[in-house]
Every structure is written in C-alpha cells, then in structure tokens.
Amino acid sequence: MGSVARAAAAVAALVLVALASVATAQMESCNGELPPVLAANYSGLACQPVWNNFVLRYHQDKNNVLRVVLSSMYSTGWVGMGFSRDGLMIGSSAMVGWIGKKGLPHIRQFALRGKSSSKVVVDRGFLVSNDHDHTVVVQQAKIYLAFQLKFSYRLTHQHIIMAFGNSIPVKNKLTRHQDKTSFTFDFTTGRASVDGSFPYGLRRAHGALNVFAWGVLMPIGAILARYFRRVDPLWFYLHVGLQFVGFIIGLAGVVAGVALYSKIQADIPAHRGLGIFVLFLGILQILAFFLRPNADSKYRKYWNWYHHWAGRLALFFAAVNIVLGIHVGGADNSWKIGYGFNLAVILVAVIALEFMLWTRWSKNNTSTPTY
C-alpha cells in the first residue's frame, strides 16, 4: 500500500505542476512585454487570453477610440479579428495582418460578404480607422496586430470573430482559414463568453441526421433490395423498414436545415436546391410503395423501372449533396474522413456484390427478379 500511495502522490504532484505551468504560461502571455515599437502607443492596455494562444489587449478612451493589440504564435500565414453585428461571419468586418513573402508587414480591413474568397473584399467594411494607426510586428515567434478603431458608441458586449490561415495572402486574397471561433467579449469587464448567435448545434444536427439517413441507412436498404432477394421475404421487410426509417430521419434533417437557413440566411443555392430535389425523389419513392401494382400486373415492369431509377438518382444526388454540405458548412476533417470512409465501404461492397450477382445470373441464365 505504501508504494501505491507514493505513486499516487507522485502523479498528483505532476498534475499540480502541469496545472501551475499552464496558469503561469497564461499569466505570462499577458505579463510579457510588448515589442518596443508598440510600447509608445499601446502601453497600459487591459489584457485577456481569449482563444488558443490568442491574447487580446485593448482600451477604449472617452472619444470611443478603441486601441487593440492582438497577439498569437506565428510562423506564416495570416491572423484576423472580426467585428460582427450578429455573431455571424457574413456581414462582419475584420482586421487581418500577415508578413508577406518579401518579409514586409501587411494589415488591412476586409469586408466579409460571403464564405468564398471572392466575397472577402479588401479595404471595405464598416470599421472606421486610419491606415497610419495600423502596425504588424513579429517578435520571438509571435505576431502582434496593433490597430485603432473609432466607434460612434462605447463598446460593451461585442460579437468577435477570430481566425487564422497558414498560407500567405497573395494580392490581398485571403486563403481559407485553418481554424476559427466566435464569442461575445465584454469590453467593460474583459470577459469572453461562447457566442450563441451562430446555431452550431443546429448545423451539426442537420448534417448528422442527413448523413445517417441518406448516406448510411438508405444505401444499405437499396443494397438489400438488389443483392439479397434470395432471402425472401426478409429482404423486403428490411428494405421497406430501412427506407421508411431513413426517410423520417432525413425529413428531420431537412427540418433542421430549414430552421438553420431561417437563422443564418446562408447563400448556398446549390446545396439547398439539391436538397429539395432529393427530398422530392424521396417523397415519390414513399408514394410508390403505396401504389405498387401486383407482381402479375402489366404495369409492374414500368413501376419497377421507375422505382429503381428514381431511387438510384436520389441516392446519387444525396451523396453529392452531402459532400457539398460538408464543404460549404466548413466541417472539420473528422466529417470528411468519416463520410469518405463510409462512402468507400459502400462503393466497394456494391462493386463486389454486383460482380457476384452478374456471375450468378450468367450461370443460371435467369432474368432479373422483380419486387
């Protein structure tokens, strides 16, 4: 027991040392000296670590001029701080700084009018400032963005957006961010809180429900219908059950998407249009179940043709729209890798089962069964 106690005490001591180191590092991030070139105009600012290794120094005077120094660890690329009226990226304005390929500092205002590079417009936005008040300094692997902004009111709770990218902007064109965050910052108390304006949970629900429904359940149901009809009638009940459950879950995903669109008014017509088209095909497939002719009906072959191809089109465009949604939604790599792996497994399974099916048909010389 003595050795166990000593081991536990050692572990506890290591944990306390680690916590103390983290706390010290956070304090040093604010207690460290500013570069000498900034000391004259930006000394005496309030300081607060806000995100990752981002540190915000700030002060707003009686004339509502806000002095800001944003610092972060830096090797290459760009760093930005945006001011938003509603917590969303679109419609906000940002101060972005970087060191160019020739070693020259750059800091410019950008109007964030959309998520594509063409809609991030340099030297536009609602922030009021003078260019000569802006400075970018790199010292000891840290970048410092210093700027002054004039507001018509005293800032209290302000929606803030922060982001960084690893690629150096060329001709003032920002590359896609490597990471980003949004929060509400209280300039009177120095407290940052998670910004609830952007419905991240709703976005995740919309994506997860549709990926599970259209990307997992329905493809499995279609595979059962085409390749396992020898297991009769089990294949039919499994096929119908999976497609109905998938459609209900997918419909819930569509409802989440409509609610998400009403909140953020995202300008993604291709994703929205494909989603409506896939939902329309899904509704036709549900109706087809109730309108299915008897097996000996002369209309059955037309129903089979319609049901097969409408289902294949729905699954194909659903897969396209899932990939598009992951892209425009700015999902992290876990979504891309997860759905990519899922899609690869389904495609390999379909190819293998299709080969086995055609081999069996050629041996038996039988026609395709109907259902």
From TrEMBL:
Any GO CC annotation of this UniProt entry: membrane
The places in or outside the cell where this protein is found are: Membrane
Matching PROSITE patterns: CYTOCHROME_B561 (PS50939), DOMON (PS50836)
Please list which residues make up the signal peptide.
1-25
Q: Keywords of this protein's UniProt record, alphabetized?
A: Electron transport, Iron, Membrane, Metal-binding, Signal, Transmembrane, Transmembrane helix, Transport
- Location of the DOMON domain: 52-165
Give the matching InterPro entries.
Cyt_b561/ferric_Rdtase_TM, DOH_DOMON, DOMON_domain, UCP037471
Cite a single Pfam family from the UniProt record: Cytochrom_B561
Give start and end of each Cytochrome b561 domain. 168-362
Query: Binding of heme b: at which residues?
Result: H206, H239, H271, H307
**SMART domains cross-referenced by the UniProt entry:** B561 (SM00665), DoH (SM00664)
Q: What is its main location?
A: membrane
Give the molecular function GO annotations.
Answer: metal ion binding
Q: Which parts of the chain span the membrane according to its record?
A: 207-228, 235-261, 273-292, 313-331, 337-358
Please identify the protein, giving its name as recorded: Cytochrome b561 and DOMON domain-containing protein
Q: What does UniProt list as this organism's lineage?
A: Eukaryota, Viridiplantae, Streptophyta, Embryophyta, Tracheophyta
